[in-house]
């Protein structure tokens, strides 16, 4: 009778399988997926490397490894991902929250820090990551999040329930203008991948993440233009943009009459976040 495979056995065989599929981080992915099955972090896994797996655990790990080997993003396979202080449900209804977007939240919090109950509008909320993180870290903030995708809004509602954080969620197409008025902050991580760039993106992105949230079709320019009509005087606009696009977005803000236009780099040193205030020239 064959012995049951151990934690070490499954990590090794899973990493080999993922390496053959072209995974960039096969061993790390194998560890994350097996840890998910067993409810263990990486330290816990290596404290139990000789532990035999049950048949059910082997089957569950094998199913997850197969999904990752088919280039489904690790975050979708796990079904959840960390974003600042939160752990959010993630799946292909919305973009995966990324580390660079945490810098967007950082800038938002700095811009509204002096206000006790700032009114915040998150445009194209996806998973709800930005809206929920702002509401979590500035408890006085009154946050409204909009998206054109009903699927994305459903996921954002799940995350609001999951985290216990209250935000308002609305269906809204930004090309119809932005809702409301008197916002202290408008923030967005809009689609900014040009259609000609899609072919150069990883399979995990192109084949799995929603195109409506990826491909730039004038959303950034529309937000810059329309935010100026719904922000209060002195209110701020914060936008994420693609590597190499910050100067162009900053120019849009200057042309639209925003003051204090600034660019912030992400953790990799890429110009990623553009902001400005609605000033006297608007």
Can you tell me about this structure?
With 282 residues, this protein is of the alpha/beta class. It has two domains: 7-70, Ubiquitin-associated (UBA) domain (Helicase, Ruva Protein, domain 3); 92-278, Rossmann fold. It is 41% helix and 20% strand. It has eleven helices and nine strands. The protein has helices spanning 7-21, 26-38, 42-47, 55-69, 74-78, 99-112, 129-137, 150-163, 203-206, 219-230, 246-255; strands spanning 80-83, 86-89, 119-123, 142-147, 168-171, 183-188, 231-240, 258-265, 271-278. The protein has a seven-stranded mixed beta sheet with strand order 5-4-3-6-7-9-8, with helices on both faces. The chain has a two-stranded antiparallel sheet with strand order 1-2. A hairpin with a 2-residue loop joins strand 1 (80-83) and strand 2. Helix 6 crosses helix 7. The longest helix is centred in the N-terminal third of the chain and has 15 residues, at 7-21. The protein is elongated, with a radius of gyration of 21 Å. The mean pLDDT is 94.
Identify the notable features of this structure and list them briefly.
282 residues, alpha/beta, Helicase, Ruva Protein, domain 3, Rossmann fold, seven-stranded mixed sheet, two-stranded antiparallel sheet, 9 strands, elongated
